[in-house]
Amino acid sequence: MTEAFITPHSMVYPHTLGGTHFLTGSDSLICLFDISRPGNDGPIAWMPTIPSKRKQMVGGGVGMKGIISAMAINPTGDGILAAGTFSRQVGLYGANGTGESLGTFSIAKSEADRHIGGGGITQLAWSPCGRYLYIAERKSDGVLIFDIRVTGQLLGWLEGRQALTNQRMKIDVVPIAQGDSHEIWAGGTDGCVRVWRNPTHSAGPQKCQWEWKVHDDSVNSVVLHPMGDIAATASGQRHTSRDMPAIDAASPLMEKVDNSLKVWSMPFLDGYVH
Questions:
Q1: What are φ and ψ of residue 253, in 5° steps?
Q2: Confidence class for position 53, pLDDT limits 50, 70, 90
Q3: How confident is the model at residue 59 (pLDDT cuts 50, 70, 90)?
Q4: Which of 13, 88, 154, 185 has the fewest CB atoms within 10 Å distance of its CB?
């Protein structure tokens, strides 16, 4: 038997397990680790995302094959894990990711494909009510919205995200104090942050409500403080010599390479609950 390291491509801490366990996603495999156990014994549980040969032979089992590139636990406490792959599939699993498969679906060839594109899932995020799943992809100009009450049903998509890149571009789900209201905040390759309010209240394509310029380079992450009135943005991307040929440190072009973290005071957001 040959021993080999399995490289994780995603990780999540299920809040229902008290912070003592975490899940990792790798090639067609989800593993559960217990951080209270010393040593290097590996995971305490693991679940292949493809059905066993025995189940396939009897015509049973559903699953998905590919690198588990993103995971998210439903915030309502029901223990449902959503896992996504670079091959554009999503699987739902019970018992905080260690239970049975509740269903799988593909996001490829949907109505949104010809509008915003997509080249593999990089982030999953639940709505505060736990009924909808936001799906962010690489090489995509938007964010998909799926209704999980009807597994695999596309509700709509957010347009104009400006994220046609292989870089991971994160989004943030920002709850608002009034009921189930929330917003989606996302950065773009043009240095702007865009905000969509209550995307689940309507179907089809949706444009952002407002945007503002925050960096001189790609904004790969934006998050809001739990108190709601402070935001943080991070920027930067890999630049090659083809992007900036024959320049030196004194060149004005170098000023456009913005690898930075900024913290913003936003008192007008008071009342948001994150």
A1: -65, -30
A2: low
A3: very low
A4: 13
